[in-house]
Amino acid sequence: MSAQPFLIAAAGLFSIGIYGILVRRNVVMVLLSIELILNAVNINFVVFNAMLGDALLQGQIFTIFIITIAAAEVGIGLAIVLMLFRNRKTANIDEFDLLKW
């Protein structure tokens, strides 16, 4: 089986994720876009591992690490967003200026 349909799907997911980061102003939507980008990378790792016939399954191992890191990122990111939302009453990125001088 050809890898082209999987790579096209991964490129589409990656493009949608980049578009979401650049256009969206809601923090939760930006976190969701980052998850789309990480899932596109996971698809690429698994496809290239299957196409190269790696006996050590390095693509799948990297994918498991990325899924673990993404889960931690979502947990910490949502905790930060909830605290900012409680203090500022908004989830708009443009109004988060706590670290500006």
* Beta-strand proportion: under 5%
CATH topology: Helix Hairpins
The protein's oligomeric status is single chain
The biggest beta sheet is recorded as: none
The general outline is elongated
How far apart are the first and last residues' alpha carbons, in Å?
A: 55 Å
Summed up, the helix count is 3
Helix content: over 70%
Summed over residues and divided by their number, the pLDDT gives a mean of: 90
Q: What is the N-to-C succession of helices and strands?
A: HHH
Question: Which architecture does the CATH hierarchy give at level 2?
Answer: Orthogonal Bundle
Number of domains: 1
Regions with pLDDT < 50 over 5+ consecutive residues? Answer: none
> What structural class is derived from the secondary structure elements?
mainly alpha
Strand element count: 0
How would you characterize this protein structure?
With 101 residues, the chain is mainly alpha-helical. α1 packs antiparallel against α2 (27-52) and α2 (27-52) packs antiparallel against α3. It is elongated, with a radius of gyration of 17 Å. It has helices at residues 4-23, 27-52, 58-88. It has 3 helices and no strands. Helices cover 76% and strands 0% of the residues. It has a single domain (4-90), classed as Helix Hairpins (Orthogonal Bundle). The model has no long low-confidence stretch (mean pLDDT 90).
Fill in the keyword field for this structure.
single chain, 101 residues, Helix Hairpins
What is the structure about, briefly put?
The protein is an all-alpha fold and 101 residues long.
Question: Which helices and strands occur, and which strands form pairs?
Answer:
Layout: H1 4-23, H2 27-52, H3 58-88
